[in-house]
Amino acid sequence: MFISLSSFTVANDMGQATKEAFINRPHLVDKAPGFIRMEVFTAHENPNEFWLMSYWENEESFKVWYDSHQYHDSHSGIPKGVKLAPKSVWVKYFNHVGD
Question: The ABM domain covers which part of the protein (predicted)?
């Protein structure tokens, strides 16, 4: 299993609107070959800080999705006017250990 973990912080108090956008997302990734699931979290001490974990059967499936127009289309639901805190965006990739 391959996991993509990303994080960002909303800088302009649009955290609630961003949270609602995730709740109402179009689920485009759900149909991608190799996709298992996605989880979205907000930090307890900062509700404007978001963490996304997407789970994939393998890294190749993730790369195909990431390079697709559906990936870019999936971001169309981002609320207008959202600004991200400088240097708050990062991504890490993981391989699952064990069964």
Answer: 2-91
- How many domains does one find in the chain? 1
Partners of residue 43 on adjacent β-strands: 46
Structure tokens at 80: 């207008």
Q: Which of 9, 81, 69, 3 has the alpha carbon at shortest distance from 45?
A: 9
Query: For position 95, what pLDDT does the model report?
Result: 94
For 39, the token pair is 């989880």
- Cβ neighbour number for residue 98 with a 10 Å cutoff: 4
Residues 21 and 74 sit within 8 Å (Cβ to Cβ): no
CA 94 vs. chain centroid, Å, equals: 15
* Model confidence, pTM: 0.88
- State which residues form the domain around 62: 2-95
